[in-house]
Amino acid sequence: FVKKKYEAFFHGDLEEAARAYDLCTSFLTPTMGRQIGIIVSFFIDGMIGFFHARKRNEDEAKWTNVGKESINLLRKWVVSSEWNFSNKLHLLEAEYYFLNGDDERAIDSYQRSIKAAHEHRFIHEEGLAEEKLASYLLRKSRHDEAMVHYVNAKKCYDAWGAQSVVDRIDKIIALLLPLCTEQRISPVIR
Q: Going by C-beta distance under 8 Å and a sequence separation of 6 or more, which residues neighbour residue 182?
């Protein structure tokens, strides 16, 4: 179920990711699988949690708590390895600020996540942070800025070799393009 959750998350099927999350939590004994899988699972749980909390349904408190628990874990882990966990923590914090309408802190945290993922060579997580910043900007009707970050996300996912994720981002870009005032969008150069 952890793999199914991860796959559903990166393919943009957050409903399936939430179902996989619920199935994972229905097991009384946690798995002692590979440590990296467990770490990534908690990170993805937080991302799923904040996405569903923003939907403002009757289970908003449940999903907010899932996200906050993930932040608390990452804060502990970043002390032992800033290299491995800082970009994940910044991204979860950005999603938390997004949920709570704190625009300035959200944007700052998205940008810090992108920078840390880039510097630490986590290309897929750089793409994820770019995509999440783009989604945030899109929700704020900042279409041109969102487009730049979707293009950046696509480049990262392409370098990662995730063609199905690249295809998903291409569909978003195609839908967004008519809303952009700047018809020649180029990626941000760091």
A: 144, 147
Q: What string of DSSP letters covers 5-62?
A: HHHHHHTT-HHHHHHHHHHHHT-SS-----HHHHHHHHHHHHHHHHHHHTTT-TTHHH
Amino acid present at 136 = Y
What is the b/e burial string over 6-18, where b = at least 16 CB atoms within 10 angstroms of the residue's CB? Answer: bebbbeeebeebb
Interatomic CA distance for residues 129 and 126, integer angstroms: 5
Distance of CA 160 to the CA centre of its chain: 16
Nearest to 111 by CA among 93, 99, 84: 93
Distance CA 91, CA 108 (A): 10
> Per-residue pLDDT tens for 75-129?
999 999 999 999 999 999 999 999 999 999 999 999 999 999 999 999 999 999 9
**Per-residue b or e along 61-88, where b marks 16 or more CB atoms closer than 10 Å to that residue's CB:** eebbebbbebbebbeebbeeeeeebbbb
The pLDDT tens digits for 19-62 are 999 988 877 555 555 666 677 889 999 999 999 999 988 999 99
Tell me the residue length of the chain.
Answer: 190
Global confidence as pTM: 0.88
Which segments of 81-189 does DSSP mark as H helices, in order? 82-99, 103-119, 123-139, 143-160, 163-176
DSSP summary character for residue 11: T
